[in-house]
Design a protein that fits this description.
It is built from 10 helices and 8 strands. It is of the alpha/beta class.
């Protein structure tokens, strides 16, 4: 989370939203009617009402390409957006991956992992890189609520994006790795099929292993308090303390001497296995954190999604 986030490119100038519009074709009928016909028209409208037309089906989005700035949620007047990275057309419905950026929960945006999202599309996945609300203005549970909403949005529009709603995974790095792991450990996990976390902090409680004051400051900003002052909130926000039975398969990655303690990985892996989860781990030597080791773990990441998002 510290020093691993690449500066995002400038935001796109064109936003694309899919907005359904209802129509009432008979709204002006009375104004055009005259004499007795006006009475008949009014009576008809009173009896039948002026009903909106049925919502139009969203148009199917074909790849390859990028559909930028799609609004997936509006909360508190804030429009949260995602970019959809579309692979070449396929015979069957494609697998999808939600891509959740790093930044200590306080900075970053959907452009942070643009390269990784594009690489997923190049490998045949439909990738959805998302924004989420950031701390300290928006404390827990704002960010995880947004990630959950994004997953629901994507699955609900499976036909539009030509994806299989039962084959949706999530890739998160650093703070994003924490968020996708937290989603995966919740009961029912909202249909998430597989999860990959690179350097995700998994225990935000005072008993956790935050290695530096800066990391602890990120925790406090995300929680809205120091973990010692809001123990229940810190526990609720920690994947390692919220394991549900039969979680989706998980690939956890960490370096031996990086910003996030290796203990976070081992504790979560052990907890997931106790809950009958399928867990794979990659431990890298040295101090690289999250996106800093992308080239070393990309093949395993793609292979993991290919195996566990299989039809």
């Amino acid at each position: 989370m510290d020093g691993s986030v690449r500066p995002p490119p400038s935001a796109p100038s064109v936003s694309e939203e899919f907005i359904g519009r209802a129509s009432c074709r008979h709204r002006n009928l009375v104004h055009r009617a005259a004499g007795p016909l006006a009475v008949l028209a009014v009576t008809c409208l009173l009896l039948t009402g002026c009903s909106s037309a049925a919502p139009r089906a969203e148009p199917v989005v074909h790849g390859p390409g990028i559909r930028r700035g799609v609004v997936y949620r509006t909360v508190g007047g804030l429009r949260l957006r995602l970019d959809a990275y579309l692979p070449a057309p396929a015979v069957s419905r494609r697998r999808a991956v939600l891509v959740v950026h790093s930044g200590g929960w306080v900075f970053g945006n959907r452009q942070t992992l643009a390269d990784e999202a594009q690489r997923l599309a190049d490998d045949g996945f439909t990738a959805f890189a998302i924004d989420y609300r950031l701390a300290p203005r928006h404390r827990y549970p704002a960010a995880i609520d947004d990630v959950r909403a994004a997953l629901q949005f994507v699955r609900a529009r499976a036909h539009q994006y030509e994806i299989d709603p039962n084959r949706v995974g999530a890739l998160g790095t650093s703070a994003g790795g924490h968020l996708v792991a937290l989603l995966a450990t919740r009961p029912h996990h909202d249909g998430l099929t597989a999860v990959v976390s690179w350097s995700g902090p998994m225990d935000l409680t005072a008993a956790g292993q935050a290695r530096t004051p800066k990391l602890r400051s990120y925790y406090a900003a995300f929680l809205g308090c120091a973990a010692t002052r809001c123990a229940a909130r810190a526990r609720a926000a920690s994947p390692v303390w919220n394991i549900s039975r039969d979680p989706p398969p998980a690939l956890l990655v960490n370096s031996t001497d990086e910003l996030v303690s290796l203990g976070d990985l081992t504790e979560l892996a052990d907890a997931l296995r106790r809950a009958h989860g399928t867990v794979a781990t990659i431990v890298l030597p040295g101090g690289f954190h999250a996106e800093q080791y992308v080239s070393a773990v990309w093949p395993q990441t793609v292979e993991f999604f290919a195996d566990h998002l299989r039809a």
